[in-house]
Amino acid sequence: MPAEQMDIFASKKALAAPLLSVQGLTKRYGARIGCADVSFDLYPGEVMGIVGESGSGKSTLLSCLAGHMAPDAGSVVFQTAAGPRDTVRMSEPERRMLARTDWAFVHQNPRDGLRMGVSAGGNVGERLMAVGARHYGGIREKATDWLGRVEIAADRIDDRPSQFSGGMQQRLQIARNLVTGPRLVFMDEPTGGLDVSVQARLLDLLRGLVRQMGLSAIIVTHDLAVVRLLADRLMVMKGGQVVEQGLTDQVLDDPQHGYTQLLVSSVLQV
Amino acid sequence: MSETAYNFGYLDEQTKRMIRRAILKGLAVPGYQVPFASREMPMPYGWGTGGVQVTAACLTPEDRLKVIDQGADDTTNAVSIRSFFQRTAGVAVTGATRDATLIQTRHRIPEAALTEDQILVYQVPIPEPLRFIEPRETETRKMHSLQEYGLMHVKLYEDIARHGQIATSYAYPVAVEGRYVMDPSPIPKFDNPKLNDCPAIQLFGAGREQRIYALPPYSKVVSLDFDDHPFVASKADHACDLCGSGVSYLDEVIVDDQGGRMFVCSDTDYCGARVAAGQRGRLSPPEAA
């Protein structure tokens, strides 16, 4: 990463309080560890990648962060409009409100994140209606705009997602999540299960949206190329523990921990 | 002709108390679906087992019962439920909306205005308005408790996107007292405005789904809509062919194989009373000279 770009991050950090501050987050499944004692800060506009093999606890961590699962210990402090709040100790209505407004969650499988029986426009409009939009024309206009931004033709607005290709479904899911202008996006393997050319376009789109909207994002993936492209910072997990974290390029180019070295060297070179 | 082998109103007293408790809770929390231990009734599910249990719990020997099915007093469902309570409770029955103290209804609200002395009992097939958009009961209950009703509008959005207007014409969702979204049972949306500010107690019973909910008198009931697609209480654009009424809800009846049809009031009591008062429609038989 060029030096002046790092300076931008440095000044950003100095200016703003962290958007998300995680301290000692722990989740156990009985005697087994889901994730243990995870701590990090995420600053506004920053994209963090979490990598690790299957079962390393990255999805558990993401679920705890996004409030889908209650952690056993630790705190997740989010900078809400009204000041910092610990989302773990928030009441459920507040947390769900946050999940509809300031947060977004992009599932690996679009079927988990979309309503397959509802048209594309309805899918995008749902979050708007959930926060009180009651003007059909306005909702539709916004849905059309967002379909355009994720490169779905406007005449597909009344088609159901089941008639869409996998890549289109994933793009629709992204539009549906970003329509309310969230500040923090959680992504669980957003490119999983897509073929490479579709992956590339999706990544390109995501990168554009993240930069353009100044989003912060946490991306869980096992694909190192995805984090290389999207993430500013990288966290490597193994067996529920964070074994290494740092700037993405630094971690990938000069891995310190044995497991990270293994991970980096395991990537197939084409 | 009461059958003395049965307890008054068929159900035993303990069961009636249990149902009354559910009704009271429903009245205290308007629009909230109260679970209750629905009993097997001597009629199949879908024939008004929920309504019958609520009626049985509310009946007193002094009551005058009216039962309507799609507005009519003389259809199978109405006739069999009416005779059921005649046999098991021995209560007086009537066809006149004005004379009844308790009205059990399937899919209509009578045209005549109700009064504070009346109870209206609805038969409800599916009490959960969110069911068809969110099939998980655990999730819909959470949505009710957190007042997350955006999905309800997604359904209306889909209607407009597909049909150019809100095509939901019955079981049209309503918001009760600014809190719970409620399924008003499959009444035509024409009847929705009558739910609002109604002087009578309105009780809803779903037997198979084991839910009771209620609207206390003068509850505020608002039909959901969009700012630019407001709720419209629609009916067939005709006058009744028997009594000439232009304001009542109409049934369309096919009368021959050539596409001939007539429109008649679905509320037989209302229509009959108008005809008796000398009102005539397009297809009324000529006056006897």
Describe the fold and architecture.
The complex is a heterodimer of chains A (270) and B (289). Chain A has a 6-stranded mixed sheet with strand order 6-7-8-3-9-10, sandwiched between helices. Helices cover 42% and strands 24% of the residues of chain A. In chain A, helix 8 links the parallel strand 7 and strand 8. The model of chain A has no long low-confidence stretch (mean pLDDT 88). Chain A is globular and about 55 Å long. Chain A is built from 11 helices and 10 strands. The longest helix of chain A is centred in the last third of the chain and has 18 residues. With 270 residues, chain A is α/β, with parallel strands linked by helices. The longest helix of chain B is centred in the N-terminal third of the chain and has 16 residues. The N and C termini of chain B lie far apart (41 Å). In chain B, helix 3 links the parallel strand 2 and strand 3. Chain B folds into 2 domains: 167 residues, Bacterial phosphonate metabolism protein PhnH (Rossmann fold); 48 residues, no CATH class. Chain B is globular. By secondary structure, chain B is α/β, with parallel strands linked by helices. Chain B has 7 helices and 12 strands. In chain B, helix 1 crosses helix 2. A 7-stranded mixed sheet of chain B has the order 1-9-8-5-4-2-3. A 3-stranded antiparallel sheet of chain B has the order 7-6-10. In chain B, strands 11-12 form a two-stranded antiparallel sheet. Chain B is 26% helix and 17% strand. The model of chain B has no long low-confidence stretch (mean pLDDT 93).
